[in-house]
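Escalated from tier 1: manganese (II) ion holo job.
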Amino acid sequence: MSSDLEFLSHDEIEAHAPALRADQLFLSIVVPTRNEADNIEPLLGRLRASLPARTFEVIFVDDSDDGTDLIIRKLGAQVVDAQIALVHRDGAERVGGLGGAVAEGLRVARAPWVCVMDADLQHPPEAVANLVARAKEDDVDIVVGSRFCADQATGLEVFGPVRTALSKVSAAAASLLFPRHLRKVTDPMSGFFMVRRKAVDVGALRPQGFKILLEILVRHPKLRPTEVPFEFAERLNGQTKASPREALRYLRQVLNLRFSGGPARFGRFGLVGISGLAVNTLVLALFSDVAGVWYLASAVLATQVSTLWNFALTEKWVFRGGTPRLGLAGRLTAFFAMNNVALLLRVPLLWVLVSGIGANHLVANVFSLLVLSVLRFGLSDSWIWSPRTEERLFNYDIHGIVTIASEGRLPELARFRVDAPIADPTITVRLGRLAERGVAAQELDGLTQLHYVEKFGNLGFGARFELGERSDITATPVLRWSPHVLYTNIVEPVLRWTFVQKGYALVHAACLSEGENAFLITARTDTGKTTTALKTLDQLPFSFLSDDLTLVTPDGRALTYPKPLTISRHTVSAVNTPQLTRTERLKLIVQSRLHSKSGRLFGLIIAKTGLPAATMNAYVQALVPPPKFQVDYLVPHAPVIPEANLRGMAIIQRDGDEGYEVLEHEEALTILLENCEDAYGFPPYPVIKHWLHSRNGLDLATKEREIITQALSGASTQLLRSPDRNWHRMFPEMVRRSVDASDSTQVREIAA
Ligand code: GDD
Ligand code: MN
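Tier 2 regenerated the structure:
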C-alpha cells in the first residue's frame, strides 16, 4: 500500500533519497502505467539513449496488478544516469485512471518541464528530444506531440479505421466546443505532450480517464501551446486499456469541462435563447400582420430585434461580471455575426437531417436548434465574452551584461528570457502612442532624446528613444503585432551600442565552436552564413553559439547570442531532420518568398523612394512573420554552449577561385565592420545611427573597433572563397589552420 513517491536510486545512495538534485534536472518524464511489465525495460533503454545523461527523471505512476511496479523497482535501481521514481497506487488509490495518474505525476515532478508519455512505446522515446527542442523555443508553455499535423502519414493506421475515425471526430468535436483553447492544437486527444510545470495548476484538475491533455488546455486558457509532429507507433507488448467505457468517460468529461462555468450558465444561455424566440415571434407578427410588411422582410427584421434582445440579456445576465477581452462594439458585432451565421447554417443542417438521413422534420428542427445553441454557447464563452488576459512584461537578461524589460515580446531574445522581474533594467521598452512626428533629436545632459515616426503616426512605425546609462524606448502600438520588427529595427540597434558602452561588441557573425575553441563566420547578409553554420552543425561535432550576431569580449571570448535562425526552404533542405509541422512547411513557402533576399532588397528600394518603408515592413511582418526557428529545432543534436575562446574568424565570400587566404587583422576587421553596417541597413537605422553611437560626446564607433581588435588579437583571420558555396566543407580546414597558427604563436611566445 504505497501511493507515496519512491526514488529508486543506485545501491550506494541511500534508498528513498533522490540521486539527482532538482536543480540538475531539465525534464521530468511522467509515465502512467497499467500492466506494462514488458515495456519498461525497452522504454527506459531508449529514453536513456536519446536524452542527455543526468538531466531528467522518469516518474512512473503505476496502477498495475501484473508486477510492473516490481520491474520498475528492479530496473530503476540500476539506472545511474537518470533519476527513476515510482508512485504505485493500489486498489482504492487509483483515482481518475490514466488522467489521475498523470496528475499525480505532475504533482511530484521536480523539473521545470514535464513530459507525459505512454509506456507502451507508441510514443517513440526518441521524439521526446524533439519536444524538448520546441520547448526551448520562445514563449511556449506546452508542446503537444501531434499525430495530425505532420507532412506525411503519422502512423494513424495503427489504430485501425474505426478508432481512427472516432479519434478524429472527437478531436473535431472538441475543437468546435473549445475553439479558442484549442486553436493551435490539432491533436487535443494526444497522450504525448510536454508542459512547463509551473504553468499547470494541478489542484484545479479533475481528471477522468484518458483525455488529460484536453483538460489541461481547457482549464488553463493562458497556456501558450505549440505542436510537434510524431509518428504514432505500434504498441510493443501487452494490450490497450482503451474501452467503450473510456469513450463514455470522455464524453462526460468534455461536457463537464464545457459547462463548468456552471451548467447554470448554459441554462441561462438557453433561457435567453427561448425568450429570444418569443420576442422574434412577437416582432414578426407585429411587422407582418399588424404593419403589413412583407413576411420575409419581417423575418429578417425580427431576427435582428431578437438578436439585440438576446445580446442585452446575455451581456447582463449570462456572462455578468468579469472583464471581457473584446470591447462592447466588438462583442456586439461578433454576436450578430455568429447568430446570423448560425441561422444560415440551420437550413443546410435541416436539409441533411430530413432529406439526407430521413429524420422527422420536427425532431430535426429541435435537434438543429440544440446543436447550434451548444456551438453558439461555446463561441460566446470562449471568444466573445472570454476574459481579458493580463498584460505581462517580458524580461530578458543577456549574460548579466544588459537587462531589458519590455511590454512587447522580443522573440529573438527568447533564450535570455527570465521569469523574475528585473529591478533596474538597462533598457526599458514600452508600447504606446507618441505625440512626436518625423525625425528629430536633442541632447540634454547625459541623455539623448530622439524620435523617428513615419507618416501615419501612431498607426504606423514610430519610436522614441531616450538614451543614456539607462535607456527608454517607446514604440508605437502597432509594433506589438510585429515583434520581430520591434526587436530587429528598434531594440537591436540600441543594444549594439549599449554593449559597446559596457565594453562588449555585438558583431555580425555566426559562431561555432569545437570544444573550447570558437570560430566566427562573417559575410554580407544573404551570402550563406546560416546554411554554412547549419550544415557544419549537422555533419560535424561542433557546438552552436550563434547564427547572426555574436558578442565578443576584449579578452578574446565569444558569448552565445542565440537568436532563432531565419531560414528559407533552401536552408531547411540543408539539414537532415528538421521537425517542422505541415503548417510550418506550407507557411514557409510564402514566408520564404517575402523574407527572401529579393524581398529585403525591395524593402530597401522602397526606403530610398521616401515611402514609409518601416511601416510597410511592420505591417507585412505582422501578417506574415518571418520564418524563424531555434537551432535545436533544425539540428536537435547540436549543443548550444554559453561561451568559448575566440580562435579564428572566417570571412566567407563567393567571388574568386575556391581557396583560403590569411588576412591581416586590420583588413579582416574592416570587412567585419562593413558586414555589421550591412546587417543594419534597414530604416530607421541609417537615419538614427549617428545618434546611437555619437551621443553625449561619446565615440562608441571607435570604442567598438577597439574592442573587436582586442577580441581578435588571438585569432587567425582567414578568407574563404567559394563560388559554389562550399564553405561548410572548407570550414574544418580553416579551423585546423587557426588552431595550428595559435599553437605556433604560443610556441614562439614561449621561445621568446
Ligand atoms: N496509471 C495508469 N492508470 N495508467 C494507465 C491507465 C490507468 O488506469 N490506463 C492506461 N494507462 C497507461 C497505459 O499503461 C499506457 O502507458 C498509457 O496509459 C496509454 O494507455 P493505452 O491503453 O496504451 O492507450 P491507447 O494506446 O489506446 O491510447 C493512447 O493514445 C491515444 C491517442 O494518442 C493514450 O495515450 C491516449 O491518451 C491517447 O488519446
Ligand atoms: Mn497505447
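The first strand starts at residue 5 and ends at 8.
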